[in-house]
Protein backbone atom coordinates (compact mmCIF):
# COMPACT_ATOMS: atom_id res chain seq x y z
CA UNK A 1 0.00 0.00 0.00
CA UNK A 2 2.93 2.37 0.69
CA UNK A 3 6.41 2.66 -0.79
CA UNK A 4 9.32 4.67 0.61
CA UNK A 5 11.39 5.67 -2.41
CA UNK A 6 15.19 5.72 -2.33
CA UNK A 7 17.21 8.91 -2.40
CA UNK A 8 18.23 10.16 -5.86
CA UNK A 9 21.99 9.79 -6.22
CA UNK A 10 22.53 13.23 -7.79
CA UNK A 11 20.85 15.10 -4.92
CA UNK A 12 22.86 15.98 -1.84
CA UNK A 13 21.26 15.13 1.52
CA UNK A 14 19.54 18.24 2.90
CA UNK A 15 20.46 17.86 6.53
CA UNK A 16 23.64 17.74 8.49
CA UNK A 17 24.31 14.64 10.52
CA UNK A 18 26.62 16.07 13.21
CA UNK A 19 25.72 15.33 16.82
CA UNK A 20 23.28 17.90 18.16
CA UNK A 21 24.48 19.97 21.14
CA UNK A 22 21.86 21.51 23.43
CA UNK A 23 24.53 23.38 25.42
CA UNK A 24 26.04 24.95 22.31
CA UNK A 25 22.63 26.26 21.23
CA UNK A 26 22.14 27.93 24.61
CA UNK A 27 25.65 29.40 24.53
CA UNK A 28 25.15 30.74 21.00
CA UNK A 29 21.75 32.21 21.87
CA UNK A 30 23.33 34.23 24.68
CA UNK A 31 25.99 35.56 22.31
CA UNK A 32 23.37 36.43 19.68
CA UNK A 33 21.37 38.43 22.23
CA UNK A 34 24.31 40.81 22.63
CA UNK A 35 24.34 41.69 18.93
CA UNK A 36 20.74 41.31 17.73
CA UNK A 37 18.90 43.53 20.19
CA UNK A 38 15.39 44.43 18.93
CA UNK A 39 16.04 43.15 15.41
CA UNK A 40 13.69 41.01 13.31
CA UNK A 41 16.14 38.13 13.52
CA UNK A 42 16.24 38.30 17.32
CA UNK A 43 12.44 38.38 17.51
CA UNK A 44 12.32 35.27 15.36
CA UNK A 45 15.05 33.52 17.37
CA UNK A 46 13.22 34.24 20.62
CA UNK A 47 9.95 32.94 19.17
CA UNK A 48 11.51 29.71 17.94
CA UNK A 49 13.59 29.21 21.06
CA UNK A 50 10.55 29.58 23.32
CA UNK A 51 8.61 27.11 21.16
CA UNK A 52 11.24 24.37 21.06
CA UNK A 53 13.42 24.91 24.11
CA UNK A 54 11.51 22.45 26.32
CA UNK A 55 12.06 19.69 23.76
CA UNK A 56 15.73 20.26 23.06
CA UNK A 57 17.20 18.22 25.93
CA UNK A 58 15.48 15.07 24.71
CA UNK A 59 15.92 15.77 20.99
CA UNK A 60 18.33 12.88 20.50
CA UNK A 61 15.67 10.47 21.76
CA UNK A 62 13.44 11.31 18.78
CA UNK A 63 13.55 9.29 15.59
CA UNK A 64 13.87 10.49 12.01
CA UNK A 65 10.66 10.70 9.98
CA UNK A 66 11.74 7.67 7.93
CA UNK A 67 12.17 5.59 11.09
CA UNK A 68 8.81 6.79 12.44
CA UNK A 69 7.04 5.83 9.22
CA UNK A 70 8.76 2.44 9.03
CA UNK A 71 7.60 1.79 12.58
CA UNK A 72 4.07 3.13 12.05
CA UNK A 73 3.00 1.85 8.61
CA UNK A 74 2.37 -1.90 8.40
CA UNK A 75 2.00 -2.17 4.62
CA UNK A 76 5.23 -0.34 3.78
CA UNK A 77 7.87 -1.37 1.29
CA UNK A 78 11.18 0.45 1.83
CA UNK A 79 13.48 0.85 -1.17
CA UNK A 80 16.91 1.84 0.13
CA UNK A 81 19.22 1.47 -2.86
CA UNK A 82 20.18 4.87 -4.28
CA UNK A 83 19.74 5.10 -8.05
CA UNK A 84 20.13 7.79 -10.68
CA UNK A 85 18.52 8.83 -13.97
CA UNK A 86 17.05 6.09 -16.13
CA UNK A 87 18.10 3.42 -13.64
CA UNK A 88 15.92 5.16 -11.06
CA UNK A 89 12.95 4.92 -13.45
CA UNK A 90 13.55 1.21 -14.07
CA UNK A 91 13.91 0.56 -10.33
CA UNK A 92 10.62 2.34 -9.59
CA UNK A 93 8.82 0.40 -12.30
CA UNK A 94 10.00 -2.93 -10.90
CA UNK A 95 8.56 -2.13 -7.48
CA UNK A 96 5.78 0.44 -7.33
CA UNK A 97 2.90 -1.59 -8.80
CA UNK A 98 3.19 -4.40 -6.26
CA UNK A 99 0.21 -3.06 -4.26
CA UNK A 100 -3.38 -2.62 -5.42
CA UNK A 101 -3.37 1.03 -4.33
CA UNK A 102 -0.10 2.79 -3.68
CA UNK A 103 0.98 6.04 -2.03
CA UNK A 104 4.65 6.87 -2.49
CA UNK A 105 6.78 8.59 0.18
CA UNK A 106 10.03 10.42 -0.44
CA UNK A 107 12.63 12.80 0.96
CA UNK A 108 12.56 14.98 -2.17
CA UNK A 109 10.04 16.39 -4.64
CA UNK A 110 12.46 15.44 -7.43
CA UNK A 111 11.23 11.84 -7.19
CA UNK A 112 7.84 12.99 -8.52
CA UNK A 113 9.44 13.64 -11.91
CA UNK A 114 10.84 10.11 -12.10
CA UNK A 115 7.59 8.54 -10.90
CA UNK A 116 5.48 10.25 -13.57
CA UNK A 117 8.12 9.77 -16.27
CA UNK A 118 8.21 6.06 -15.42
CA UNK A 119 4.42 5.72 -15.52
CA UNK A 120 4.23 7.57 -18.82
CA UNK A 121 6.93 5.44 -20.45
CA UNK A 122 6.21 1.98 -19.07
CA UNK A 123 2.45 2.05 -18.52
CA UNK A 124 1.87 4.34 -21.53
CA UNK A 125 -0.63 6.31 -19.47
CA UNK A 126 -2.21 9.25 -21.23
CA UNK A 127 -3.68 12.60 -20.19
CA UNK A 128 -2.25 12.76 -16.68
CA UNK A 129 -2.75 15.92 -14.64
CA UNK A 130 -1.27 16.78 -11.26
CA UNK A 131 -2.81 18.41 -8.21
CA UNK A 132 0.11 19.66 -6.15
CA UNK A 133 -0.21 20.94 -2.59
CA UNK A 134 2.90 23.02 -1.98
CA UNK A 135 4.12 26.37 -0.68
CA UNK A 136 6.28 26.57 -3.83
CA UNK A 137 5.46 25.86 -7.46
CA UNK A 138 8.70 23.97 -8.28
CA UNK A 139 8.51 25.23 -11.84
CA UNK A 140 11.83 27.04 -12.34
CA UNK A 141 12.91 27.32 -15.95
CA UNK A 142 16.48 26.08 -16.16
CA UNK A 143 18.59 23.68 -18.16
CA UNK A 144 20.42 22.02 -15.29
CA UNK A 145 19.78 18.47 -14.11
CA UNK A 146 16.49 17.49 -12.55
CA UNK A 147 16.12 18.91 -9.07
CA UNK A 148 13.16 19.55 -6.81
CA UNK A 149 12.77 23.15 -8.04
CA UNK A 150 12.27 22.45 -11.77
CA UNK A 151 10.35 19.17 -11.89
CA UNK A 152 6.97 20.50 -13.03
CA UNK A 153 8.52 22.65 -15.72
CA UNK A 154 10.19 19.53 -17.08
CA UNK A 155 7.05 17.40 -16.77
CA UNK A 156 5.03 19.96 -18.74
CA UNK A 157 7.76 20.64 -21.30
CA UNK A 158 8.31 16.94 -21.96
CA UNK A 159 4.52 16.46 -22.21
CA UNK A 160 4.53 13.85 -19.48
CA UNK A 161 1.61 15.66 -17.84
CA UNK A 162 -1.14 17.71 -19.46
CA UNK A 163 -1.59 20.37 -16.76
CA UNK A 164 -1.10 21.14 -13.10
CA UNK A 165 -3.17 22.71 -10.33
CA UNK A 166 -1.09 24.25 -7.51
CA UNK A 167 -2.81 24.58 -4.15
CA UNK A 168 -1.22 26.39 -1.20
CA UNK A 169 1.08 28.79 -3.03
CA UNK A 170 0.83 32.23 -1.35
CA UNK A 171 -0.85 34.96 -3.39
CA UNK A 172 2.27 37.16 -3.47
CA UNK A 173 4.22 34.39 -5.19
CA UNK A 174 1.89 33.58 -8.06
CA UNK A 175 2.88 36.35 -10.47
CA UNK A 176 6.61 35.79 -9.98
CA UNK A 177 6.02 32.09 -10.67
CA UNK A 178 4.26 32.85 -13.95
CA UNK A 179 7.02 35.31 -14.88
CA UNK A 180 9.50 32.48 -14.42
CA UNK A 181 7.80 30.42 -17.15
CA UNK A 182 8.95 31.64 -20.59
CA UNK A 183 6.78 29.30 -22.66
CA UNK A 184 3.37 30.95 -23.17
CA UNK A 185 1.72 27.65 -24.10
CA UNK A 186 2.99 26.15 -20.85
CA UNK A 187 1.48 29.06 -18.91
CA UNK A 188 -1.94 27.99 -20.16
CA UNK A 189 -1.45 24.62 -18.44
CA UNK A 190 -0.69 26.06 -14.97
CA UNK A 191 -3.52 26.79 -12.53
CA UNK A 192 -3.78 27.93 -8.93
CA UNK A 193 -6.44 26.76 -6.50
CA UNK A 194 -7.42 28.52 -3.29
CA UNK A 195 -7.50 25.93 -0.50
CA UNK A 196 -10.05 28.02 1.41
CA UNK A 197 -12.48 28.12 -1.54
CA UNK A 198 -14.50 24.92 -1.35
CA UNK A 199 -17.57 26.05 -3.33
CA UNK A 200 -17.62 23.77 -6.34
CA UNK A 201 -20.12 25.75 -8.36
CA UNK A 202 -18.16 29.03 -8.19
CA UNK A 203 -14.59 27.72 -8.43
CA UNK A 204 -13.60 29.19 -11.80
CA UNK A 205 -9.95 28.12 -11.67
CA UNK A 206 -10.87 24.46 -11.18
CA UNK A 207 -13.33 24.70 -14.07
CA UNK A 208 -10.51 26.03 -16.26
CA UNK A 209 -8.27 23.19 -15.04
CA UNK A 210 -11.00 20.66 -15.94
CA UNK A 211 -11.33 22.13 -19.43
CA UNK A 212 -8.07 20.36 -20.29
CA UNK A 213 -8.33 16.81 -21.57
CA UNK A 214 -7.64 14.82 -18.37
CA UNK A 215 -8.13 11.11 -17.68
CA UNK A 216 -6.11 10.62 -14.47
CA UNK A 217 -5.20 12.78 -11.48
CA UNK A 218 -1.98 12.34 -9.54
CA UNK A 219 -1.87 14.00 -6.11
CA UNK A 220 1.52 15.33 -5.00
CA UNK A 221 1.80 16.73 -1.47
CA UNK A 222 4.87 18.63 -0.30
CA UNK A 223 4.58 18.77 3.49
CA UNK A 224 5.83 22.37 3.59
CA UNK A 225 2.31 23.38 2.53
CA UNK A 226 1.30 23.11 6.18
CA UNK A 227 2.00 25.78 8.77
CA UNK A 228 4.83 24.46 10.93
CA UNK A 229 5.07 27.51 13.19
CA UNK A 230 1.69 26.59 14.67
CA UNK A 231 2.47 22.87 14.82
CA UNK A 232 5.39 20.65 15.83
CA UNK A 233 6.05 19.49 12.26
CA UNK A 234 9.82 19.26 12.21
CA UNK A 235 10.61 16.53 9.66
CA UNK A 236 10.55 18.85 6.67
CA UNK A 237 13.10 21.11 5.02
CA UNK A 238 11.60 24.39 6.19
CA UNK A 239 10.78 23.50 9.78
CA UNK A 240 11.48 26.21 12.33
CA UNK A 241 13.44 23.63 14.32
CA UNK A 242 16.23 23.63 11.74
CA UNK A 243 17.69 27.07 12.53
CA UNK A 244 18.24 25.84 16.10
CA UNK A 245 19.85 22.69 14.74
CA UNK A 246 22.05 24.89 12.56
CA UNK A 247 23.07 26.90 15.63
CA UNK A 248 24.10 23.64 17.25
CA UNK A 249 26.70 23.05 14.54
CA UNK A 250 28.54 26.38 14.89
CA UNK A 251 30.44 28.02 17.74
CA UNK A 252 30.07 31.81 17.94
CA UNK A 253 32.21 32.15 21.05
CA UNK A 254 35.40 33.48 19.44
CA UNK A 255 33.87 35.19 16.40
CA UNK A 256 33.95 38.91 15.73
CA UNK A 257 30.70 40.85 15.37
CA UNK A 258 30.55 40.70 11.56
CA UNK A 259 31.31 36.97 11.61
CA UNK A 260 28.48 36.42 14.08
CA UNK A 261 26.04 38.29 11.82
CA UNK A 262 27.08 36.32 8.73
CA UNK A 263 26.94 32.98 10.55
CA UNK A 264 23.53 33.61 12.12
CA UNK A 265 22.10 34.82 8.81
CA UNK A 266 23.32 31.60 7.21
CA UNK A 267 21.71 29.54 9.98
CA UNK A 268 18.37 31.31 9.40
CA UNK A 269 18.70 31.82 5.63
CA UNK A 270 17.90 35.50 6.06
CA UNK A 271 17.12 37.39 2.88
CA UNK A 272 15.73 40.80 2.08
CA UNK A 273 12.64 41.22 -0.08
CA UNK A 274 11.77 44.53 -1.72
CA UNK A 275 8.07 43.81 -1.35
CA UNK A 276 7.95 42.14 2.04
CA UNK A 277 10.84 43.60 4.02
CA UNK A 278 12.60 41.13 6.29
CA UNK A 279 12.21 37.53 5.13
CA UNK A 280 13.84 34.20 5.66
CA UNK A 281 13.35 30.86 3.99
CA UNK A 282 11.26 29.58 6.87
CA UNK A 283 8.59 32.21 6.21
CA UNK A 284 7.61 30.59 2.98
CA UNK A 285 3.94 29.78 2.80
CA UNK A 286 0.57 30.67 4.15
CA UNK A 287 0.29 30.43 7.91
CA UNK A 288 -3.37 29.38 7.89
CA UNK A 289 -3.27 25.97 6.17
CA UNK A 290 -3.82 22.87 8.28
CA UNK A 291 -4.61 19.20 7.67
CA UNK A 292 -8.38 19.74 7.70
CA UNK A 293 -8.07 22.26 4.86
CA UNK A 294 -6.24 19.73 2.69
CA UNK A 295 -8.60 16.87 3.55
CA UNK A 296 -11.67 19.00 2.74
CA UNK A 297 -10.16 20.28 -0.50
CA UNK A 298 -9.21 16.80 -1.71
CA UNK A 299 -12.73 15.66 -0.82
CA UNK A 300 -14.18 18.44 -2.97
CA UNK A 301 -11.85 17.61 -5.86
CA UNK A 302 -12.66 13.90 -5.64
CA UNK A 303 -16.36 14.70 -6.11
CA UNK A 304 -15.61 16.90 -9.14
CA UNK A 305 -13.28 14.34 -10.71
CA UNK A 306 -15.78 11.53 -10.23
CA UNK A 307 -18.53 13.60 -11.89
CA UNK A 308 -16.19 14.18 -14.85
CA UNK A 309 -15.07 10.52 -15.12
CA UNK A 310 -11.52 11.37 -14.11
CA UNK A 311 -9.62 8.65 -12.24
CA UNK A 312 -8.17 9.40 -8.81
CA UNK A 313 -4.71 8.02 -9.33
CA UNK A 314 -3.12 6.41 -12.37
CA UNK A 315 -4.47 2.94 -13.12
CA UNK A 316 -2.37 0.20 -14.70
CA UNK A 317 -3.49 -3.46 -14.84
CA UNK A 318 -6.11 -2.95 -12.10
CA UNK A 319 -3.56 -1.29 -9.79
CA UNK A 320 -3.45 2.37 -8.91
CA UNK A 321 -0.74 4.90 -8.03
CA UNK A 322 -2.66 7.59 -6.16
CA UNK A 323 0.13 10.06 -5.51
CA UNK A 324 3.04 10.96 -3.28
CA UNK A 325 3.95 12.77 -0.08
CA UNK A 326 7.38 14.36 -0.38
CA UNK A 327 10.09 16.43 1.32
CA UNK A 328 9.97 14.19 4.40
CA UNK A 329 13.32 14.78 6.10
CA UNK A 330 15.03 14.97 9.44
CA UNK A 331 14.07 14.56 13.09
CA UNK A 332 10.39 13.97 13.76
CA UNK A 333 9.77 15.64 17.13
CA UNK A 334 7.25 13.62 19.17
CA UNK A 335 6.30 11.80 15.96
CA UNK A 336 4.07 14.75 14.96
CA UNK A 337 5.05 14.82 11.28
CA UNK A 338 4.35 11.09 10.99
CA UNK A 339 0.91 11.59 12.58
CA UNK A 340 0.19 14.33 10.05
CA UNK A 341 1.27 12.09 7.15
CA UNK A 342 -0.94 9.28 8.45
CA UNK A 343 -3.99 11.58 8.62
CA UNK A 344 -3.38 12.80 5.06
CA UNK A 345 -3.12 9.22 3.81
CA UNK A 346 -6.17 7.91 5.67
CA UNK A 347 -8.49 10.87 5.22
CA UNK A 348 -7.50 12.28 1.84
CA UNK A 349 -5.42 10.07 -0.45
CA UNK A 350 -6.79 6.63 0.40
CA UNK A 351 -10.35 7.67 1.17
Write a concise keyword list for the protein shown above.
single chain, 351 residues, alpha/beta, two-stranded antiparallel sheet, 13 helices, 40% helix
How far apart lie the N and C ends? 13 Å
Poorly predicted regions:
272-280
Categorize the overall geometry. Answer: globular
Sketch the major β-sheet. 10 strands, mixed
Structural class of the helix and strand makeup?
A: alpha/beta
Which H/E pattern describes the elements?
EHHHEHEHEHEHHEHEHHEEHEEEH
Question: What is the residue-averaged pLDDT?
Answer: 82
- Tell me the β content: 15-25%
Count the beta strands. 12
- Which oligomeric state applies? single chain
Report the C-alpha radius of gyration, rounded. 21 Å
Number of helices: 13
Helix content: 40-55%
Model description:
Helix content is about 40%, strand content about 15%. With about 350 residues, the chain is α/β, with parallel strands linked by helices.
Amino acid sequence: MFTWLPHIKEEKPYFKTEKYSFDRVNSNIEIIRKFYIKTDTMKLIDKIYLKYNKYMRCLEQNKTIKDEIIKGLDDLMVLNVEKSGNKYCEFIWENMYKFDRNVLLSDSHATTYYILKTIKEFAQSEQIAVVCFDAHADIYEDEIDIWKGNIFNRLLREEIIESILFVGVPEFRKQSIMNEVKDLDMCKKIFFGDIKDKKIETNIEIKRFLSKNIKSIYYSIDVDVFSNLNNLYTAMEYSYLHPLLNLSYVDLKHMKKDEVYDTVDNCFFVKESHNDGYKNLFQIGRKDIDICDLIDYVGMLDIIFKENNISKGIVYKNRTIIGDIVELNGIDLNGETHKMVRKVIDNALMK
